[in-house]
Design brief:
elongated, five-stranded mixed β-sheet, 14 helices, about 375 residues
Amino acid sequence: MKSLNMPSTDEITMRLVHYFVTKENYQPVIVNGLENEIWLENIESKYAVIRISNNYIHNNEQLDFDMFKAKTVIKQIKKKTFSLHCRALNILLNVGENVRLETKDKQMEVCTITDVSELNKDSSITKTFPELKEDSVIAEDEMDFFINITNDINQKTEEKNRIFEQIFKKKSVIVTYALIILNVMIYLLSVVGLLNINVFAMNIMAVKAGEWWRILTAGFFHNGILHLFCNMYSLYIIGSQLEQVLGKKRFTIIYFISLITSSLLSGVIGGASVVSVGASGAIFGLMGAILYFGYHYRLYLGSIVMSQVVPVILINLFIGFALPYVDNFGHIGGLVGGLFSGMMVGVPGKKNKNDTINGCIVTILLIAFLLGMLFIR
């Protein structure tokens, strides 16, 4: 690592930011009112938040106040990201010799870096991030160093922006429209008497007698034009948006798994007296998938999820419990199925093998449990 003719703390800061942004996928957090410190976040990393501070701390009283300020900012980040736990790494670059770095806070680890050489040898920071020792920026002088750092960070930011634009750009909607057309056609066929709704509606006794198709077909029949219109309008609004961001394959899997879990929970809890139809359970599943998707992109969509999606779900569940003849347990079954199947199929731009495996396991266990309960009753 070539030594540059610039303040040591500036070089350390720039090298750390370069590494965390380009190699560890952290991104800057804008914190108003603070000087000489940089905040980075990656909610999927071991440390969700990293703070790099160049403020001089000459005694332990100043250290305590500095820790208090850091914890206040972390509370704000936790609130913004809906995180119950937010482990942080507080990197101090300008600490007096008499300061004792002793903290009992398990959620915030504190370390100091006083020399650039600590970044390419065994130290407290490289034990946690060993690849930091291999991260180098080739530069002939200070200006070249600054330009190369900036170019690398900008390139990484552009890559993230391209992924983000690819996910959220407008795409063709096919599956949602096909589902709407299918539901309308089935309703018309049932109105003219070519299809008997009683043969396809969800009923636990009929399923136990061998009419297993009801678990799926119940989601395509509707009891009246108003029932059909409300569900198809909801499917159009929610489905057309979700299909574009998740893709047709993911969307289709979520829809049908939600339909299945909706029918199963309806049959398990409702019992023999309940005969249910409608696409609302699958639509609730789409809202469950939106919750999962929104959680992974909560830095961008957090306020929308909390102010729009969650209230819509709660209001609809409340209406379902308040009004008779509404199969609210079917709605809940679809919501949970959509949440789990959303985890199973994954979120575009956020590859996480553990989440996919866990999603597959919990989805299979949920369906197996409901099927078992269905035949036990």
